[in-house]
Amino acid sequence: MDGGFTFLVRDNLQLDLSFGRGIAGASDWFVGAGVSVRLPR
Fold it and tell me: Within its chain, how far is the Cα of 34 from the centroid?
């Protein structure tokens, strides 16, 4: 099971956060974060 959020800061900048839990065990958790930038041509 997993989920996440994205936040559009500006037209060319986005932040994201993801998280989840594995189905095999109670201690299988993950968290991730990222930044996306659209570069001009």
Answer: 6
